[in-house]
Amino acid sequence: MCLANEVLAVDRVSVSFPGHRVLHEVSFRLEAGEFCGLIGSNGSGKTTLLRTILGFQAASAGSIRINGARSLTSVGYVPQKIALDPYLPMRARDLVSLGLDGHRLGLPLPSRKRREAVDEMLEAVDAELFADQRIGELSGGQQQRVLIAHALVRRPRLLLLDEPLANLDMRSVAEIVALLHRLSVEHGLAVLLSAHDMNPLLPVMDRIVYLANGQAASGSADEVVRTEVLSRLYGYHIDVVRVHGRVLVIAAGNEAEILSAIRQDPVHIAQVP
Known about the structure:
alpha/beta, 6-stranded mixed sheet, 3-stranded antiparallel sheet, 8 helices, globular, cell inner membrane, ATP binding, membrane, nucleotide-binding, ABC_transporter-like_ATP-bd
């Protein structure tokens, strides 16, 4: 049964490759206006889960519903690691425009309605000032804004982002997180954002899906990021340490090493599963 505000339902989804189980019975729900962090270390299955939701990867078991059906018409997607040639003769607004009908063959015909849709989305992500610059010449944070606008220009209800904060400086990370949270609230947009570090998302996350050892725990950050929950996921003892307003997830026995790192550099705190 689909609830009125339910945008995404993942039910007992498993994904296996020959000789390797990637995901095992992953379940969670996401409602309109919810901001959800998909958290896990490299290789934990975050990208595989996003690809399965998008239909790029077949599930070996379980089901996925988007707006009560298996439909991708209302999903926006920002993929991981897009290499943009600085000499590519494409402006930021041109890339956003492709989000309207880039899936179709042939060149789109210009129109006032099309131009207004692009301008409105560039304004929504605060990209008006560099809308006419070449996309490859923009900073990492500016490129992410344009890619988000490209994903949202068709007004989806669900936005999936695969590691959009990777390789950004701290200021850009904070700005992108604040932008996505604002869009989620203002437009009732369900956001599922994958990251290996949950700390930048803690102020805005309504829900967290934590992946480890092919399994997932879902709920609020306080419900999930607990020693007993994460130890069960990893299959060995995990300590959750809160310091300087940040959360560390560390394997038992590494406390001295991590706390030493904190004393040397209290701003950059890594998660060590």
